[in-house]
Specification:
By secondary structure, the protein is mainly beta. The chain has one domain (2-75, 91-227): Porin. Helices cover 11% and strands 42% of the residues. The protein contains 3 helices and 13 strands. An 11-stranded antiparallel beta sheet has the order 2-3-4-1-9-12-11-10-7-6-5. Strands 8-13 form a two-stranded antiparallel sheet. Helix 1 packs antiparallel against helix 3 (144-152). The longest helix has 13 residues, at 2-14.
Length: 228
């Protein structure tokens, strides 16, 4: 899901671009198995507007939509006189220790990441920095926003409440909701992560998102929790 969400974010950025707006929220709905081969991404405008507009992208293969994403783009203005946030910064990447995520999760995507783990990590709560040297697309003008959005879905797994594997639980997310009060930049994505499991088979991964300049937004992922 993570690289696919970055490709979709890149398509949304390129859809009828405007200099006076920025993307403030992206909502991904995972509708089925995400294809590993050829796929198409189509974009459209759902709600045009001068100050706010809603756009959409669909990733599909074989005539089936696998991911549908919508994004609110909002007009920007100078509100620096009242700008303030409550989210607290994370320790910088060079203050954190290297972490081998592939020791917990299999797959080439996880192996492609450089990961740094902050102190205090435990099941259900943790702070991790991630980045990748692999390009998201073959375009030279891919934005930092698209690249970082291609990493956010990793949040569901960095502080798992239970270890993955047989005789445990699986907890895939069926959506990814991202809200950004600041435009992110750079190559590092910081994930300040909390995971909650309910008693009826549903869970939630909640994450404060960071770049090198500090917090810039939040992500939520609803989980379907069941025995493996």
């Amino acid at each position: 899901m993570a690289p696919a969400s970055g490709i979709i974010a890149d398509a949304l950025v390129r859809h009828e671009p405007r200099d006076d707006v920025r993307m403030a929220r992206i909502s991904y709905e995972i509708l089925g198995l995400i294809p590993g081969g050829e796929f198409q991404v189509t974009t459209s405008t759902l709600r045009p507007g001068r100050t706010i507009e809603l756009i959409q992208a669909e990733l599909s293969a074989g005539g089936r939509v696998a991911i549908r994403a919508s994004a609110w783009r909002m007009v920007t203005s100078d509100t620096s006189a009242v700008a303030a946030i409550e989210d607290q910064p994370m320790p910088a990447p060079d203050e954190c220790k290297p972490w081998e995520g592939a020791s917990v999760w299999p797959g080439g995507y996880i192996r492609s990441l450089e990961m740094r783990l902050a102190e205090g990590h435990r099941p259900g709560s943790g702070k991790v920095w991630i980045r990748t040297s692999h390009p998201l697309t073959d375009q030279d003008d891919t934005t930092d926003l698209a690249r970082l959005m291609g990493l956010v879905d990793t949040a569901n797994g960095i502080a798992a409440r239970v270890p993955p594997g047989e005789n445990s639980y699986i907890f895939p997310n069926v959506d990814l909701q991202i809200h950004m009060y600041r435009a992110p930049s750079g190559e590092w994505l910081g994930l300040d992560n909390k995971v909650s499991f309910g008693a009826d088979g549903i869970g939630l991964t909640s994450t404060v998102l960071h770049d090198a300049s500090g917090p810039f937004g939040r992500a939520e992922q609803i989980l379907t929790l069941r025995k493996s």
